[in-house]
Structures are given as structure tokens and as C-alpha cells.
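Reader question, answered in our methods column.
A reader sent in the components of a multi-part assembly and asked whether the whole thing could be modeled at once rather than chain by chain. We filled in our standard form and ran it. Here is what they sent:
COMPLEX SIZE: two components
ENTRIES:
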Amino acid sequence: MTAAAPIRAKRVLPGFSLSLGTTLLYVALVILIPVVALMLKGAEIGPARFWAIVTAPRTLAALRVTLTAAAVATVFNALYGLLMAWVLTRYDFPGRRILDALMDIPFALPTAVAGLSLTALYSANGWFGGPLAGAGIALVYTLGGVILAMTFTSIPFVVRAIQPVLEDLDPALEQAAMTLGARPFAIFRRVVLPAILPAWLAGSTVAFARSLGEFGAVVFIAGNLPFKTEIAALLAFIRLEEYDYQGAAAIALVLLMFALVLLAVSNLIQFRAARHLEAR
Amino acid sequence: MSIVIEHMTKSFDGTAVLRGIDLTIESGELVALLGPSGSGKTTLLKIIAGLEWPNSGGLAVHGADWLHLAAQDRRIGFVFQHYALFPHMNVRDNIAFGLTVRPRAQRPGKAVIAAKVDQLLEFLQIAHLGERYPAQLSGGQRQRVALGRALAIEPTVLLLDEPFGALDAAVRRDLRAWLREVHDETGSTTIFVTHDQEEAFELADRVVVMGEGRIEQIGNADQIHDHPASPFVARFMGATIELPVTLQAGRAEAQGLDASRLPRRALPDGPATLFLRPADVTPLADPAGRWQVAHRTSNGALLRLDLTDGSGQFGIDLPRRAPEAQGLAPGTRVNLRPEAGTIFPGPRAASAPATAPEFPRKEKSL
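And here is the structure of the entire assembly that came back:
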């Protein structure tokens, strides 16, 4: 009468459609809708007005401060984070686990708390600020302070991105390079670095994106002087306080674009770097 | 390049891995380090490579003290168990690595390197794979690339760690014969580590049997098979049956045992242990026999009989069509006539001086 029902592969986990639906709904509500809303808000402004807001001297200055500080912080974190991850995975020393746990503090600490304690430490009468002031270096209320705050909050992104890859790296690869005559630096450059590069780039990109949007930690230490230490996120906030929704949206949109472009570039580099590992 | 290893010891976190190794390997020899896992064979190989360092002892290669030489300066070809090919480099770059990594002053020109790689690819029969990445290769192909990478630096010594461990049986057999050819053509001194006796005996000029961080015996297949130097080697070579016997005038005696086929041994009278391989025993049906057939299984050619005497149980193998195999149904009582075997003096606990008091029983031999 009827043909036998087609054989269907059984899924290991039940409720595929339900779980996928939940995930998509969540992504839409929490991630996509705010982003789209922001873009629509930006589109409402119109190109001419948008351009006027974005190229206003104060906006440009804020963007320049944000980008410069984030770039410096990211370069520092990329190098220092690599070192930290290396130390945490390659050496065994007393207190390694504690150090490992401490790496998460910037994640866990409310950024306002971080900003406050940094300000207290580095102000002219703080523990570090006093000696530094004696040497003619001021961090609080300067670009240096902005960089410091961004560095503090984004370092774990780099460390935690590289760490698992370094841990999984087959020691035989380095040993093979050794037996083939490679010196330590050559082993690092030609064997270890290519293996961790995708993770390193990814971690650094996320750290940069995080620094672009860092608010809580920065506003305490920066002093927020327009044209000097005022960051873009704060300027957007100020515009909002002034009921200038369009101004706020335009600035936020610029930050969003920077972040999206970065993520795209980072993914592209990672994809290119990893393509032969999955090639089949 | 002769390799001389003297009194070498090594321990990891207080656990002795090598307990005094003395070994000399002649130039151009192909030697297998054979032993169960944990016998220290891989550690010994890595010490020769400079990837591990001994606690004490000497390692001299052609008169040069290698314990004062970094791995980079030893010019060894090491083939890792899982090949350790660089995943982000294609086959050509992997093979060329040992040449391109040299300091500029000693580095051959690009054209020279390319020619060398071409020649090796040809020699390894993988000329068509030069542009592939390791992830795109089969196990056997990776093995060839790993060997090519090691050979590219024209090593003084070629070291291989379980070279065929990760391959399936057919590929393994092919590569074995091929490795022998490579060894003969390059004339290098080659040492490889394996836990597979068949592999060791088929491929190597000499086999070094290791157990518990010591060298138990050195020899060729026949010597080790027929005259195991210690209970450890006897067990490792497949003597799974151990019978307590009494030595009397050089002959083993025990109830139900017909030892007439065993040669007399110049050993003192007293308790001893007889080691037998399951295939070296003939059952003799006897209503008053000591053992009873508990199970009988057949694979068509061979019968396996599980025998028990109430206190212990073991299995013996015999051809299914052999006359003495007829009528051995479960329940039948038999005595045993060993056709070949090895006797070590002393009851089970005390053994030849070379082994630890408790025999390790980590790996079953075939």
C-alpha cells in the first residue's frame, strides 16, 4: 500500500528546532535588534547631518583620543598578553594557579571600581602617582590615563585567547624543530607563532573592540577634558544627556562601524591562517 | 658513527625510568629497542636525540660527548610517533625546514634546497604530494614526509619512535620493507622504538629488549625466542604458561608433566619455574591426568584449550587436525608434554638477578 517511511538519521540531542529557535530569538533580541535600531536611528539623521556631527571638531577629537588610546593599549596588551600566556602555560612555578586566577580580575571587577582604584593609585598623591609625578610623568587626566584604563580592562581577552592554543600545542612540534637544528627564536617564529597567530589576532581584536567601548574605567581617570581626554563613548553619553539623540546615535554608529570592520578583518585573517588546518 | 651509552640513569619525579643502560651500537646498524610501555625505551631514544637529559651516565657518538651538545647540534633525524609535521607548512616546506632554518652563512641556496626536496620527494615516492598540507595526507604519507624531513639534513643517526604504531596493518607491512630499503640506501645508523616483536625482529639487525628501565637481552629473533635471558623476556616473548617445577639433575619434574622433550639444563637442584608458550605444549589424554579441559574453542586451523588443575588455569594452542587434538572435549583429563620451554631457577617470586622481584605484567605479548 504505502511505501516504507524514508529512513531518517536520528539526532543525538533532541529538540533541535526548539533549541535553535531559542538561540535565534535570543540573538535577535539581545544582539541584532539593538544594533539594527542604532543603525535605523543613524539612518534617520540623514547623510549631511550625520557627516556634520561626525566631523565636528569635538567628535573628531574624541574619536582620535579613543582610537589612539585603544591602539596603544592593544599593542601593549598583545605583547604583554602573549608573554603572560606563555608564562602561564610554559612554566611551572609556585603560585601559577593563583596568577592564572588573577588574570580574570579585570573581567570580574566592575569597571567603575577599576577606574576608581586606578585613579587613586596614579593620582599625584597616590602610591604610583607620587613617584611618577616626581619623574615628570602624569597619568591621571591625560591620554596616558586613558590608555592605562583600557589596558587594564582588556588584557584578559588576549591572555585567555592564546592560553588554550599554547596548551594544546603539541610539544613534539617544537622538539621536531629542535632536532632539525632550529634555534629557540627560529622555533618560536616558524613553528609556535604560526600556530597561535589566529588566536592572538582574535584576542587582540576583541581587546581593541573592548577598549573602543570602555567607559566605566576610563571616565574616572581621564578627567574627560574635551579635545584632550574625552573619549567617544563618553561624548555619546553627554549628547544623550543633552537630549541630542541624533548626536549620540551618530557617534555610537561610528564606534559600531569600527568594531564591525575590525571583527570582519580579524575573522578574515583567522580564516586565511587556519584554512590549511581543516583542508581535506 | 658508533653510539656508546654507558651507565645511563634517568628518573622522572623520583620514578626511575632508566636504571643503568649500557649499550653500544655500531655504525650503519639498524637496531630496535623493544619493550612494553613504561620500559624506558622512548626515554632512551629521546636522550640520544637530546630531547631528554639523563641523571647520570655517558653518551658518546663517534668519540664525541653528546651530553654536552644541544639537540640542534647533534644532526639527528628524529621521526616522532605522531609525525609532528608542521601543520601550517606544505609538504615541501616541511621537508625543507631543516635546511631553511640554518643560519644564513650555512644555508644552501634556494635552488639547491628545491633540488634536494625534489630528490627526497622522488626517493620517498611522494612526488605528487609536494604542495599538500599535512592535514590532507593519509597516515602512511605523513610517515613518509616525516622521514623525508628527517633525512633532509643528512643525519648522522636516524631515530624513530614507534614509527608504524599509528598505521593500519597493510600500510605497516609496506612501510617496514621500505624503511629497510631507506636504511640500506642511506647507510645511516638507525634506532627505532617499538612494542611490536614482529616488527622489531623483521626489521632490525639486532633487537634490544628492555623492561623496567633495564636492558633484558640483546640479540636476534632466534636467540631471544629460544633462549630468553630472563623471566621477563620469556613472558614478553609469549610464554604465558608458568609452571612451578622441581629441578632434579638438570631436568624439570612436576606432577602430570612429561619433560622428556626438554634438554637437560646445568642448573642446581631445587624449585624452579618452567615458562612455556601455548603452542609448544602437547596434551596427552589420560583419565588420571592432572589437568582438565575447561573450554575448547577453534578458529578453524587452531584449537585453543583452556586447562585447569583446580588451582590455576591457562590456555594451550594446537593444530585442530593434529592426531593428539582428537577427542579432547571439555571435561577430558590430560597430562602435558612440553616440546620447548625455558627454566629459570627459583620459585616465582625470586627470579634472575636482572629483573625486579615482582614481574611486571603490563603488556600481553602476542
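What stands out: The first helix of chain B runs from residue 41 to 49. The longest strand of chain B covers residues 15-25.
Send us your own complexes using the same form.
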